[in-house]
Amino acid sequence: MSLFDLTGRVALVTGGNGGIGLGMAKGLAACGARVMITGRDAAKNAAALAELGTGAAAFQADLTATGAAETLLADVLALAGRLDILVNNAGTNIRKRPELVTDEEWATVLDTNLTALMRLTRAAYPALKASARGRVINIGSMLSLFGVPFSPAYGASKGAVVQYTKSLASAWAADGITANAILPGWIDTALTRQARKDVPTLHDSVMARVPAKRWGDPADFAGIAAFLASDAAAFVTGAAIPVDGGYSTQG
Ligand code: NDP
User: Which of 8, 62, 188, 238 is in Cβ range 3.0-4.6 Å of 215 for a Cys bridge?
Assistant: First the structure.
């Protein structure tokens, strides 16, 4: 039996219809988990499902909507009967300097990246506790660790994700639940493709600073998600793990 065998376990990956979320969903599925994904865009959900194969399911949900977390959890449990692995990956950014951010923009980013994550995790607690091998995997960012001039709300939300993850790890270890954060560096997804359009010099500055000398790929997240979800990581909790080609080592 593989160290990373997830046969019989059910995983829910928010924002699993593309980018890093789909990369992690594929890794969990490859290790035997039954994977549920969410996204707002039905066409993206359908395309991702086709890549995930039998047993997978998609739920269309805006996780910032009132009651969305509870409805999603009920839907997952009605279909799959259990939840063992929660991957909180859905996220967004609005690129603005701090002096220009509106209340509405701040709320959009904080609601998506932090409050929706908290609500879904809270709603999932009974199911994760019943699993006895519950796993919470939260997606932070290199901006959980340091700042840039143009993403103040995003940085605030992602820093808080790490601290929230540590609280979960501390509170729920006695229930057999681990909670860890993954901190992606510069990854080639829809999110950063827009930033590359807005900032033509971005590609060169990333290449200059990333020791691995390449953009990350969503496939780079398959293994770390599978590891953190597995029995092999039973004693790993409260960690915040960069997956960034060495970017966060650069001062
Ligand atoms: P994508 O834009 O490809 O993915 C974002 C995902 O979140 C989509 O599946 C999107 O689904 C979903 N989503 C966004 N808002 C909502 C919402 N309100 N309700 C439900 N789902 C929502 O970007 P990435 O794959 O790059 O991002 C994934 C995570 O990784 C994010 O948390 C991001 O902050 C983080 N990250 C990414 C980095 C990178 O370089 N790419 C670097 C550091 C962190 P849909 O469009 O269908 O709503």
Answer: 188
